[in-house]
Design a protein that fits this description.
The chain has 321 residues and is of the alpha/beta class. It contains ten helices and 13 strands. Strand 1, helix 1 (13-24) and strand 2 (28-33) form a beta-alpha-beta unit. The longest helix is centred in the N-terminal third of the chain and has 22 residues, at 92-113. It binds NADP nicotinamide-adenine-dinucleotide phosphate and ligand G4F.
Amino acid sequence: MAKTALVTGTTGQDGSFLSELLLSKGYEVCGLVRRLSSPNITNIQHVMKDLRLLDGDMTDQTSMITALKESRPDEIYNLAAQSFVATSFRQPVLTADVNGLGAVRLLEAAKEVVPDARIYQASTSELFGLVRETPQNENTPFHPRSPYGVSKLFAYWACVNYREAYEMHVSNGILYNHESSRRGLEFLTRKVTDGVARIAKGKATHIELGNLDPKRDWGYAPEYVDAMWRMLQQPKPDDYVIGTGESHTVREFVELAFREAGIEKWDKYVRTDPKHFRPAEVQTLCADPSKARNVLGWRAKTRLPELVKIMVKADLERVGG
Ligand code: NAP
Ligand code: G4F
C-alpha cells in the first residue's frame, strides 16, 4: 500500500522539492498550509492537483492534531519555520513560537495520534554558530548566534527527548545552506542572483549587501530533500550533518554570480550598508558529512560554481522574460 507523508512548510523551497520527490516515489503527500490573505502557492502550483492540502499553523495545536487525524501519516517532515535569520532578531518571540514550540506541538500531536510515525525535523548548521571546530560533525558542540538558532536548538533537543522518552522514530537533519531558484529573495544567494540579473538586463544599477566576509557551505536544495527521505528509511532514528564539505565567502559567491552574467568588475555594482549586518554573525560554516555518506549513502553532487550557474540562468530568464 502507498505510504502517506505529511509535510509542514510545503509551500517553501524545501517543502516543494520534497513534495515532488515523495510524489515521484508514489506517496500520498499531505501538505500543512497556513491561511494567508493571498495564498502563496508559487512553488507548488505545478503539483497542486496531486497534493492534499490541509489547513494548519505551527502556532495552533488543534490544527495540528486535526491534520494528523485526517492524514494518519507514516512519515512526518517538519519543515515549517520562520527561516530567515535576520528577521529572527526583530521577531524573536514569533520565531521561538513557530520554530521551537511549533516542533513540540507537532511531536506532542504525533505522540497522541500517530506514535509510530517516523518524524524528520529540519535542524540547521546555525546550531553550531560560533563554531568550536572546522569542519563540524554530529558531535561538535552547539553555540547558536541568533534567536533563529536558539529556537532551532530547542526543537533539536525536543526531538532527541521524544526519541529517548517515548521511543519515537524522530531524526534531526542538521542541514547546511542549500539554495535554488525557489529560494526566497531575501536570502543572500537569491538576492545576489536576482540583483545580478536585473543589472545585466539594465533594470537595476546596484545591489546593497551586508557583511561579505562570512563563509557558508552552500549546496543545491533538490539533493538535500533526498537526504531527508533517506533518514526516515533507516531502521533507527538518528541525527545527520548534511552539506558539501566546502566553504566559500559571501564575496566569492557575489564574484561568481557577476562573472556568470558576463560582468567582471563586480565591485562597481555592490554597495554595503551596515543595516544588513547582524547583531551577532555566524562567521564560518563547513560540514563534515561523512556519517551521511557512510550510513545514508548520500553525498552532495552540485558544487558552488554549478549552483551559481543554475541560479543566475534561472533569474536571467525570469527577469528577461
Ligand atoms: P522557507 O522557504 O522559508 O519555507 C518555510 C515554510 O514554513 C513555508 O512553507 C512557510 O509557509 C511555512 N511556515 C512559516 N510559518 C508557518 C506557520 N506559523 N505555520 C505553518 N507554516 C509556516 O524555508 P526552506 O528554505 O524551505 O527551509 C525549510 C526548513 O529547513 C526550515 O525549517 C528551515 O529553517 C530549515 N533549514 C533550511 C536551510 C536552508 O538552507 N534552506 C538549512 C537548514 C535548515 P508560507 O509559504 O505560508 O510562508
Ligand atoms: O542567505 P542568508 O540570509 O542565510 P543564513 O543566515 O546563513 O541562514 C540560512 O541558512 C541556515 C543554515 O545554515 C538556515 F538554517 C536558515 O534557515 C537560512 O536558510 O545569509 C548568508 C550570509 C550571512 O552571513 C549574512 O550575514 O550572507 C550574509 N549577508 C551579507 N549580506 C547577507 C547579506 N545575507 C542576506 N540575507 N542579505 C544580505 O544583504
